[in-house]
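Obj: model holo form, ligand = orotidine-5'-monophosphate.
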Amino acid sequence: MTFGDKLGAVFDRSGHLCVGIDPHAWILDQWGLEDSAEGAREFGLRVVEAAWNRAGILKPQVSFFERHGSAGYAALERVIAEARAAGILVIADAKRGDIGSTQQAYGEAWLRPGSPLESDAVTLSPYLGLGSLQSSLELAEAAGKGVFVLAATSNPEAAGLQTARVAETERTVAASMLAGVAQWNGSRKDQSERRFGSVGVVLGATLELAKFGININEEPVGPAVPVLAPGFGHQGAEVSETRRLFGALTPGVIVSESRGLLSAGRDGIADAIARRAEEVEAKRG
Ligand SMILES: O=C(O)c1cc(=O)[nH]c(=O)n1[C@@H]1O[C@H](COP(=O)(O)O)[C@@H](O)[C@H]1O
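Output (holo C-alpha cells):
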C-alpha cells in the first residue's frame, strides 16, 4: 500500500483532522507536567490516547523533543511508536533538507522501516532544490511512506522568498514545488489508479494562495496532491474557510492544528479533538 492509499483510507475512516504534538514549555506547565523529556513523553502519550478513535493523523513537532537532547529523542521514539501501534498515521514534522548524500541519511532516519524514529511521513525543506530531496522521495516510495515538501508556509516572513520567480519557468517558488510534486506523483507506476499521490506539499491555511502564484481552481493532472495545511486555530485560519482557501485541492487537505487543541488541557484534550474532528468533516466543504 502506498502512503497515498493509506491517507485516503484514513480520510474515509477518521476524517481530515491532524493533531499536532507540540510540547511547548507553557503547555507542559498548563498540563501540570515538567518541561523535560519525561514531561514531553507523558504529554505526547496523552495526546496519542486522546486522539485514538477521534482523529486519524498526528504530527509530532520534532523540535520540542530535540530541545531535550537524547532523552527527548527517546521520548519522541516512544510517542511515534505508540501512535503507529494504535493505527494512527504519524507525520514527523522535522523539516529536514540537505545535499543529496546527506539527505539520504535524513530519509533513512524518518522513513526507513525499522529505524528507531520510523514514521509514516516526514516534512522536508526544499531550500537546496526539490531535486536534492530525490533520495527521500525514492525511499518513501519503496517503503510505502510519505513526504510533505514545504511550498507556501504559514509564517509571514516566508512570502518574499516563496513568491520569488524561478528562472527557468517563471513560476513562483511555491508553485514550482506544487508542480514538481504533482509531476513526481504523476510519473509513478499505477498512478492512474490512485486517488492520492504519496508526496504532498505544505500550504499554510493562513494564506491567500493566489498571492503565491498558486491557482487553486486548477484540477491537478494525475492523483490528488496531499496538502498538509497548518495554521488552523491559534494562527487564525477557520475550518469553514477550507474550500475557499484550497479550492480544487480541498479533497487532499489535512487540517492541522496544534496549540488550538492542546491548550484544552490534559482533561479537555479528548473532547476538544472529538469536537474539532466533527467540525472539520461538517464544515470542510
Ligand atoms: O510543516 C508544518 O507543519 C508547518 C508549516 C507551516 O507553514 N507552518 C506551521 O505552523 N507548521 C507547523 O505547524 C504547527 C502549527 O502549530 P499551531 O500554530 O500551534 O497550530 C507547528 O508545529 C509548526 O511548526
